[in-house]
Amino acid sequence: MATTTGEPTPSVVRRAEGSFAKIGWTTVFRWVLGVLFITAAISKVANPTVFLGDLFAYRLPLPEVLLRATVIVLPWLELLCGLLLFANLWSDAVSVIVLGLCLVFLVCTGQAWARGLDISCGCLNLSAFGINAQSPLLSLLESARVAFLRNLLLTACAGYLVRQALDTAEQRAAKNS
Amino acid sequence: MQGYTQLAGRVIALLVAAGVLGVLFNRANPLGIPLQASLHVDSSSTPVATARPVNQSVNDYHNEATSETPASTNPVALTWSEVRDWQVEHGALLVDVRPASAYRAGAIPGAISLPYSDLVTDLSTFQQRHDVESWLIFYCSDLECGLSELVAQEFARDFGYRHIAYLLGGFTEWQRQQANPPLP
Predict the structure, then answer these.
(1) Is the pLDDT of residue B68 over 50?
(2) Percent of chain B at pLDDT above 70?
(3) How many domains does one find in chain A?
(4) Candidates B35, B40, B121; nearest CB to A130
(5) What is the model's pLDDT at position B37?
(6) What is the 3-state secondary structure (H, E, C) of chain A?
(7) Which of B1, B42, B89, B142 could form a disulfide with B172 if both were Cys (CB 3.0 to 4.6 A apart)?
């Protein structure tokens, strides 16, 4: 392998390219989603009242008991999914759940953005990590429109993982048959 | 087909595991939330849906709260005129729990900002300035936001504040009162 100037590619670069090819997009997406889901879960578990307040602020036409059940269960589902994504265990089921969650988040943040609600998305709740959420940059990151765009990317990543998982399952089924 | 059955089984197992973990942790967690709200603000019902009985005046409630018996740990829902009473009689402080950007855009005069999203980081400073004997009235944007009631509950139940209330209708109600002041 050589560079465009004709010089041979340094071995370090070759090794890096080889490592990335070995890791692949599937692993990168698993790690990105894993980190985000674990972070989101910890911040929600740390202060359920704040998370419930965030959910109320979305003004969703849902019964209050459902919102409260979401506050109790969702962080743990996110934590389990995040850990399993890292460990690459049950990747087919985890990918399906993560895609489902991302789609729900997409709808929630999308309707908040469309209605012009000035809310914190409640996605990561960085104040749980001692970070001042009043800073303009963090307020922007937590805003509904940025959360919606971020969720678009995450949904695409999760969709890719689901497709990979289903392809692998089909190949396995074909081998067995 | 067998692959899809296995997939569905794993999905269900993960959902059940998350549900069980969530319920167990919520029960053990002192900051855990009840599945059913203990207080509920319903715009179609009587404006005061709190520990204070409907037929009991707010002043009677305060007299009980300041007597020898311990104050109720439930926050009180106040109308704007009752808020004025609290301010005149007890020097109650209005606390705006909306996002800081909303507070900067406009707030009830004299109110201080304590955004609910920053409670964790700002709480200790707030507690140093306002002890548990302070009279506090929380408000958010309107009747449906629910944040002020949540924060009020947390202050009364978890942080030991004895004189806690929230403004029904929040900032929108205050704006409405300014536009259409009640007749004397």
Answers:
(1) no
(2) 73
(3) 1
(4) B121
(5) 55
(6) CECCCCCECCHHHHHHHHHHHHHHHHHHHHHHHHHHHHHHHHHHHHCHHHHHHHHHHCCCCCCHHHHHHHHHHHHHHHHHHHHHHHHCCCHHHHHHHHHHHHHHHHHHHHHHHHCCCCCCCCCCCHHHHCCCCCCHHHHHHHCHHHHHHHHHHHHHHHHHHHHHHHHHHHHHHHHHC
(7) B142
> pLDDT by residue (tens digit) across A12-47?
555 555 555 556 888 899 999 999 999 999 988 887
In a domain? residue A106: yes
What's the confidence (pLDDT) of residue A75? 95
Min distance B180 CA to chain A CA atoms (Å): 26
Answer yes or no: do A49 and B22 touch at CB < 8 A.
no
Q: Is there a domain that residue A59 lies in?
A: yes
Q: What global pTM score does this model have?
A: 0.61
Among B15, B83, B57, smallest CA distance to A74 is for: B15
Residue A31 lies in a domain: yes
Q: What residues of chain A, 28 to 47, have a C-beta less than 8 Å from chain B?
A: 45-47
* pLDDT score recorded for residue B56: 41
Q: Which stretches in chain A have pLDDT values below 50?
A: 1-4
A3 within domain boundaries: no
| pLDDT 10s digits, B110-126 | 899 888 777 777 788 88
Interface of A with B in 36-95 (CB under 8 A): 45-50, 52-54, 56-57, 59, 64-65, 68-69, 71-77, 79-81, 84, 90, 92-94
Write out chain A residues lying below 8 Å of B153, CB-based.
Answer: 49
pLDDT for A135 equals: 65
Residues of chain B whose beta carbon is less than 8 angstroms from a beta carbon of chain A are 2-3, 7, 10-11, 13-15, 17-19, 21-23, 25-26, 29, 31-37, 40, 99-102, 115-121, 144-147, 150-151, 153-154
Per the structure, the complete domain to which residue A128 belongs is given by 25-176
